[in-house]
Design goal:
It is built from 2 helices and no strands. It is mostly helical and 81 residues long. The protein has one domain.
Length: 81
């Protein structure tokens, strides 16, 4: 009746969040591995900045660090209100 428009853009999706938690936990573990790879990659980049493979390794580590957030966002978008 109020016409608040909640049906069009529902932002609260607790079921998607809860279903995504186990997968986000696994991704959190992978992101901790990504932090270690990132630190080692940064150290190697400082030693030899010409190594292209180290740059790719650092970018892979950054994507691993962002994985838990991407997974939670994906799950919450897939589950309807």
């Amino acid at each position: 009746m109020g016409g608040s428009g909640d049906d069009d853009g529902c932002q609260c999706r607790p079921l998607g969040f809860l279903l995504g938690l186990p997968f986000a936990f696994v991704a959190l573990i992978l992101s901790l591995i990504g932090v270690v790879i990132w630190i080692v990659g940064l150290a190697l980049t400082c030693i030899c900045p010409c190594c292209l493979c180290v740059t790719v390794l650092v970018e892979l580590a950054i994507s691993l660090i962002k994985a838990p957030f991407s997974i939670i966002k994906w799950f919450t978008e897939k589950i309807p209100c």
